[in-house]
Amino acid sequence: MQKSLFFDFAIRNVRLHWFRSLLAVIGIIIGVVAIVSMGILGNSLVLAISDSLSTVGDSVIITPHAGGMGGMGIGGSDDLLTERMIEQIRRAVAPDVTIPIYSGSARMTIGTEDTVGVVYGLDPDDIPILLEVEEGALLKGESGAMAGAKFAEDNELKVGSRITLKDKGSLRVVGILKERGMGFDINPDYGIVVDGNWYQKAYNQQDYDMAIVKVKDLSRIEQTKDAIEKQLNRRETEVDVIDTKAILETILTAFGQISTFTTAIGGISLIVAGVSILNIMMMSVTERIKEIGVLRSIGTQRKEVRSIFLYEALVLGVIGSVIGGVLSIFGGYAISILMLQTTEYLFVPSSLVYVFYGIAFGIGTSLLSGLYPAWKASNLNPIEALRHE
Amino acid sequence: MSTSPGEEAIIRFRDVTKIYPLPGGDVVALDNVSLSILPGDFIAIMGPSGSGKSTLLNLMGCLDTPTSGTLFIKGRDVGSMTDEEQTSLRRDHIGFIFQQFNLIPLLTALENVQYPLILKTGDRTCTERCIEVLKSMDLQDHLFSHKPSELSGGQQQRVAIARSLVNDPEILLADEPTGNLDTKTGSSIMDLLKDLNERKGKTIIMVTHDPGVAKFAHRTIRIVDGKIS
What we know:
The complex is a heterodimer of chains A (389) and B (229). With 389 residues, chain A is an alpha+beta fold.
């Protein structure tokens, strides 16, 4: 009960000096909005990036070691994975699936238009593991092809359309693939997927350009990687092995750091707001020295005087932070539209949690700023304070 | 009044010296003062400015502690009390009346009177006693909800006296209580104090310049250069 008396004091003083209090509150609002909007932006950025990366990090990608392969003399051409190497990988990673892939790019004619696209050659049995069908059917037989989502869109391809690959022959589109996003392994969105055998014949290429191992148990991804390295790179580095999980983590860590950095910039404005609260609280203490003297002389304890000023800082902080928290949802909305052209990452828990962080930081900063003035007020000498005019 | 011999002094100074260290040299505000005040006394302290009147009153009000010597208030040694204990003593046993009235500008007349009672009891609903005390100060009801700035000097002093009385203290300390009032208002305030002394048995110690005001007291202490003369 007694506490609410001092709370009352604080409220009345805030009201009495409403303009000054308003300025301090505006400072806190700006600080909270800045810190929350930056936090939301950073988080949305991370979410947007991780959404546009197709791989969930369950793949190990094996590519021929760049350079220094020729000396081995295995297979016909340099920088490819031979059938023997694929077999070695299969044995090393069993029971996980190994998918050998041909990849290249080709000039194509669609209707009367000429275009360039990526061509992937895959065993039809492996296609469902890597890719999803949006429209039509999966690839069966050598005369068909599946078109990537963007490629189909750009070239107005439909199921049944024909694609001519110059001298290699003509293929019928049997299916359109679902958009996959940027991947670390293959990016069929801007190209077509054909039967591996057809690719082999058309380009007269026996060996594969890359292989992907899908790891079922993510915790074993490191071991899988090591097993492949052991098999193939024992004497000489023949292949490069990367796992998408590591890449994904590196990228997400980098964006996480960017997000922390932008939030810290928002934090600076909150510190500025804290200084302004400190300033007005000091003004408040200086103006009320005589009143403090009276309060002390008629029996107000030091801690009670302290609480009056802490409540005042708290009131300013809570008002500013709550308004700031509400406004920062709009701020986050605006900045998301502006920077990411979408707000789908705004109303997710990991973004909205920044609103609470912001409010908590706002209130904390205000209280911290109120500490010194409150301490100063409570330690005034009552006699000198009474004499003060 | 209750000044029967042998009764325990409510305030007792024993060889009290108060020295203020200043950059230009120490100032001796009180020099070996010994003094006893019995319950129910009404004392006027007079003296030229700078003589140590205020220091004497501040010491009695537990706002300050002696540099040397001992000061007992209600039998307790003020010098050995913590700040919190001194503050509680002021709150519960001493009423202050100031020349400048010193009401709290944020609070209404009634709330100003309530304030010390809330400090003591923690109960914010205690309006009855406060209204009763305010009424006994001859203050009209409609002024209770006014802020100090909306009251005349005499009205403010009546509110201030009501505030000093609300916790029913034994000691009232008044620092030039009529100093900011016209003669007529001043004498009605003095009547109030006299009445409190005579009928409620309050011990009153009052600092004043005005010999006319000092006449209300039972005895007058004259102080010159920190010494009681």
